[in-house]
Design a protein that fits this description.
Blueprint: H1 5-34, H2 51-56, H3 62-88, H4 91-117, H5 121-144
Length: 148
């Protein structure tokens, strides 16, 4: 069976996602230990939408802006990998990249809620759990699809 272009692209994209996830984790830990989020900002106790451009503009510091940029890249990358996996009709890739996307969305949801609701421990746990599950999903998928 010939290996498709989409299959090769997904296999090349997964290590990039793993590296981005690890960078995201390090930046998140830096934020957790060294950055105090402001009590008032657009979106606090309301819609998440105003928080994203406010954060990207650097109003809460460069570390949080980088964290949000990486989250956006992870989300877009996850969608792209899932679409490519569907196009190549490779079931293990579809399952693995779908799970990766799901867990990145879970972590992102926790992050937005953390930012807008005052930083509760449950949102921090949701980000950490989403991270480790996404990392595991992509790593296992990469390992298991190496001989296709």
């Amino acid at each position: 069976m010939a290996i498709s272009k989409n299959y090769k692209l997904v296999r090349k994209g997964i290590p990039l996602m793993l590296v981005l996830l690890l960078i995201q984790f390090v930046v998140g830990m830096y934020l957790n230990f060294y950055v105090e989020l402001p009590d008032k900002h657009p979106g606090i106790h309301g819609s998440y939408a105003p928080s994203i451009p406010w954060t990207l503009a650097g109003h809460a510091g460069i570390a949080l802006a980088v964290h949000v940029i990486i989250w956006i890249l992870l989300t877009l990358g996850s969608v792209a990998l899932l679409v490519r996996s569907i196009l190549c009709r490779h079931k293990p890739l579809i399952i693995g990249t779908a799970l990766g996307l799901l867990f990145i969305l879970m972590a992102g949801s926790g992050g937005l809620t953390f930012l807008n609701r005052g930083g509760a421990d449950k949102e921090s746990f949701m980000m950490a759990l989403g991270f480790i599950l996404a990392l595991t999903s992509y790593a296992v998928t990469y390992y298991k699809t190496g001989d296709a």
